[in-house]
Amino acid sequence: MKNILLLLFLFLLSSCSQQLVFERKQYNSSYSPNYTTSYNSANIKMEVLEAKNDENINKIIFENIKELSSFIDSQNMTINNYNQLTKGFVETYKNAKNKTPEDKIKNWEFELESNIEYETEEFVNIGINYTSSYGDATGFGGKRSLIFNKQTGNQLKIDDIFLNSKAVAKLVEAKFRDKYNVNNGIPLNQQGYCFETGSFYLTNNVFFNIEGVKFLYNINEISSYEKGSYEVFLTYQEIDKYLIIK
Question: With CB atoms counted within 10 Å of each terminal CB, which end of the chain scores lower, N or C?
Answer without folding.
Answer: N
